[in-house]
Amino acid sequence: MNISPIKTETDYNEALKKFEILFDASIGTPEGDEAEILAILIDEYENKHFPIDTPDPIEAIKIRMEELNLKGIDLIDSIGGESTVSAILNKRRKLTIEMIRNLTIKLNLSAGVLINDYSLRKRGILYIANHNSKLQVVNKTVKSRSQHIKSESKLQIVEKVKFNNGKAKK
Fold first, then answer.
1. Are 72 and 86 in contact (CB under 8 A)?
2. What are the φ and ψ backbone dihedral angles of 37, each rounded to 5 degrees?
3. Is-contact 131 158, C-beta < 8 A?
4. Which pLDDT belongs to residue 124?
5. Among the residues of the chain, which ranges form H helices?
6. What is the DSSP secondary structure assignment for residue 165, as one 8-state letter?
7. What is the pLDDT confidence band of residue 122, given thresholds at 50, 70 and 90?
8. How many CB atoms lie within 10 A of CB 138?
9. Which tens digit of pLDDT belongs to each residue from 63-110?
10. Nearest 5°: CA angle at 163, between 160 and 164?
11. Each residue of 47-69: pLDDT tens digit?
12. By the 8 A CB rule, do 46 and 16 touch?
């Protein structure tokens, strides 16, 4: 047995070829021991040079749902109503601690995966108003429904866009 650390891609490819030959070796034999050591070295090299990022919680849920042949409706008992499930799976709403506890049991996922932070999708809202027989369109991006226009009406926003805060655009 002549095993050395894997330092280069050439070393890695050679180790893979050798491991493939030894893969079916019996445990407890010199060949089996060599295969076990090669597997450890290969795994260490791959983790260092080809890291795989863990998916965000929602992607992990979707992957597990696909594995278990589940649909969104199957998560209602764990997450809440149909609209809540949709909001969670479309990243418009964050998971709560209670949802994480329920999903950990239902989907057999680690709570450590589900508690990771993830970004919510921004929502684009299109405002249309008819002013002076011209159709005005304003695209305002907000983070959630609670951030809809609070102090200004839709028409005031259109006016600001059209007149640039009081100065008429050309």
1. yes
2. -65, -40
3. yes
4. 55
5. 9-22, 30-49, 57-67, 76-79, 82-89, 97-107, 111-114, 154-163
6. T
7. confident
8. 16
9. 999 999 999 999 999 998 999 999 999 999 999 999 999 999 999 999
10. 65
11. 899 887 778 999 999 999 999 99
12. no
> Over 50: is that where the pLDDT of 120 sits?
yes
Token digits of residue 30: 């010199």
User: The tokens of 102 are what?
Assistant: 């329920």
Q: Give the residues across from 130 on adjacent strands.
A: 135
**How many residues can be counted in the chain?**
170
**Closest to 65 (Cα-Cα) out of 2, 108, 13:** 108
Which residues on adjacent β-strands are paired with residue 142?
Answer: 123
pTM assigned to the model: 0.49
Sign of the CA dihedral 9, 14, 17, 18? negative
Rounded distance between C-alpha atoms, residue 13 and residue 59, angstroms: 32
Q: How far apart are CA 154 and CA 81, in angstroms?
A: 31
Q: How far apart are CA 21 and CA 10, in angstroms?
A: 17
Q: Count of CB atoms within 10 A of residue 7's CB?
A: 9
Instruction: Return the DSSP state at 147.
Output: G
Cβ neighbours, 10 Å, residue 79 = 25
